[in-house]
Fold this sequence. Notes:
Layout (H helix, E strand, L loop, with lengths): L5 H31 L5 H7 L4 H28 L2 H19 L5 H30 L4 H27 L5 H23 L26 H12 L8 H4 L3 H17 L5 H6 L8 H23 L3 H21 L4 H30 L4 H27 L4 H30 L5
Amino acid sequence: MPRPSPSSARMQTVYPYLIVLSGIILNAVPVSLICSCAGIYFTPVSQYFHVPKAVFTGYFSLFSITMVFFLPVAGRLMSKFDLRAVLSASILLVGLGCLAMSRTTAVWQFYVCGFIMGVGMPAILYLAVPTLINAWFCKRIGFNIGLCMAFTGIGGAIFNQLGNSIIQSAPDGWRRGYLTFGIIILAVTLPFTLFVVRSHPSDLGLQPYGTDWSPVNAQTDKATNKEENESATKPTSKGITAHQALRTPAFWSFEIFCALITMNQTVYQFLPSYATSIPSIAAMAGLIASSCMIGQAIGKIVLGFSNDRNVVLGLGVGISSGLIGIFLMWAFPTHGVLLLLGSFGFGFVYACTTVETPLLVRSVFGTLDYTEIYARIQMAGSAASAVAAILWGIIIDRPHGYAVLFTLSALIMVAALATGSLPLINGRRKGSLYT
């Protein structure tokens, strides 16, 4: 067998990591700027237009609801068309929507912008990283997904500070903030989606990272060479179609898992309120939120590393860390160190939402129709997120509300562990996994 040319071998080694870098950019820039930094605009914009905060933040609810309905559409588009086209169009919708928010003259216009961004965001937020990593890697899939997803929190920490500085620079500084964010989204992300992203390694004559690569060079028999080369670069996908997956108990078990784990994730939004409800630790509200964000960033990498060894192990690490975190926050509310340690631990189960769900789906259903199956399952999570914020808000306003909140969170985590792991365990025992 002829040796691969140095340039081809170099590309085979380097290009998969350019795909990882693209996933990092997608999470660190558009996802962080639109999702993680939304809250810094709530007060200044509502004050500028002299409307209740709930009136302005309604645009973000519409944004979330729009994503629910466009998730399956994004999944179908990504499974049928070039990812460069789909992701670049998504970036344009999100970036231009953000730019338009800097020019609004009435609150209803934010709702229009929220709808536009809600159409573009599902492919970026939920589908891009798992789809790309599954296509480009046969090894270290969990670690690379976790690494990319971790930059949602890292980007949020950086851009929240930048955005706050811009907003405070003028009475209408929020306009400059949206303008700057929109420019960053387009200028930083589009070069990656247009020039780096490829749907499959075979688009460049490569194979997924972790496979034995032996490209066929020119040989005497051209017909044999062509046949062998096509075989060497053709992507191999195993699994079942979305239509088949819908008929399995595992699919509906993962629907429940995704809804539960996402509902539990929204508990994070109320941790600062929990701190302020206790006078002796009220000043730690911001630290609790930061500790949880650090936990979810580190947790995504740890969970990804654990999943590369065993998917059920990864889920167990995330759930057990969350349960310990809830216990520490509930049992030791006035002990600052334990409280911060608890919120840090809760960050690990927060990370399960974007790390465990795609890996569980891949482990059971394979990669044949992965994007569309995962998009359908993730719809349950998006819907649960919209409902959970209202539900938790009602609960904490009642007597002993935070005790009820933490108890329900613990029960939800136990139920998520069962619904997430049983399809995989049963499938392996019965030999009925579809991969």
